[in-house]
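Dear colleagues,

As part of the handover before I leave the project, I'm documenting each prediction I ran so the next person doesn't have to rerun anything. This entry is a single chain, and its sequence is reproduced below.
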Amino acid sequence: MREPLAFRMRPQTLDEVIGQKHLLGQGKVLRRCIEEKQICSMIFYGPPGTGKTTLAGVIANELHIPYRTFNAVSGNKKDLDTVFEEVKYYQGLILIVDEVHRLNKDKQDLLLPHVESGSIALIGATTANPLHAINPAIRSRCHLFEIKALDDEDIKQALRHALHSERGLADRVTISEDALSLIAQRCNGDIRFALNVLEICALVCEDHLIDRDLIMQYAQTPNLAMDHDGDGYYDVLSAFQKSIRGSDVDAALYYLGVLIMANDMDAIERRLLTTAYEDIGLGNPGAVARCVQAVDAAKRIGFPEARIVLAHAIIDLCLSPKSKSAEHAIDRVMQELRQHPYQIPPYLRFTPVNMDAQDRYDYDRSDLYAKLQYLPDRLKDVHFYEPLPSGAYENVLVENLKKLRSVSRSHDPAKLKRESKK
């Protein structure tokens, strides 16, 4: 079977690499390394299909240094031992490790001394955020370089090259300009995805012409980069919640659409409910309650109709007054507890021992509830809740709070009872 088009079109030289000007342009770091014939251990991170592993191979070719590839998931100790034997003959051998964030501790322990000494130059490739996913022992020995998604013009350049190259389609087919643009729009910066679409369309096209209708038939679903194990998934969730917080209704609906296309109701539910309570909160409790109802209804209905219910909730939350006062209040409490845990006042304990009846909490004296001190003495003047009035509801709470805080609370139940009899 013939190799896939995406494999055949892998760049062999630096000048064939498309994009990544921030690393490969004149005077940029990787081009300078190649010009100076120097190599260091590094990790390439970025979305799928952006050429991370390919670029590693190109660098090795340009430097005329032998290299070996190793997959952190499927590779084993025997594979590494073979590499270590070759190092005896090729000092500075380049080892390209795909899925480097999956490298387990046993493999790291074998590899690290060689990376440390420079007998192996490690070039890792990963779709994960290296600051979170790469073991510090590996990360501290490598330079981190982001490989960015290609833009539409970069993708179209790569597709044209594949159409004309002898390694590619060798002018056996032609493609309309709007079809070319459609592939670029749907691939989301993933050159592998784009070349795969071009290849299948080249196989089935009539009269050797690829048009827009054919692309629509074979690329019905855009490449959303929504792998749950990759950063792209969490980037969408982050943008979704931040758009609601920032009251950008159009952006929030857009990211909702991305999550709907990924059929990820669980993520939508969790993000929406978190955002409702965290960001809208006391600014509009009615909108929070409506969000809970909408999520429940959407789960009962299911997609595709659930999109309508969820859109209602998104618009409601985006355009609602917002208040993070509840979140800030509990965060202040948690910070205080981490620093200074205090004893509960004796009269608030569930079963106070050897306490006179006058000193106990009186369940029948509701008139004293708002006059009693409930915080430990050291905290009696601390206010964890600081209002952020942004809507009618919290404004009402603020007025009530002012009245309550104007009362001097007592830690002496007996005294309060005596005074109430006067």
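The beta strands are 42-45, 67-71, 93-98, 120-126, 143-146, 174-175, 209-210. DSSP finds 20 helices and seven strands in the chain.

All the best with the project,
I.
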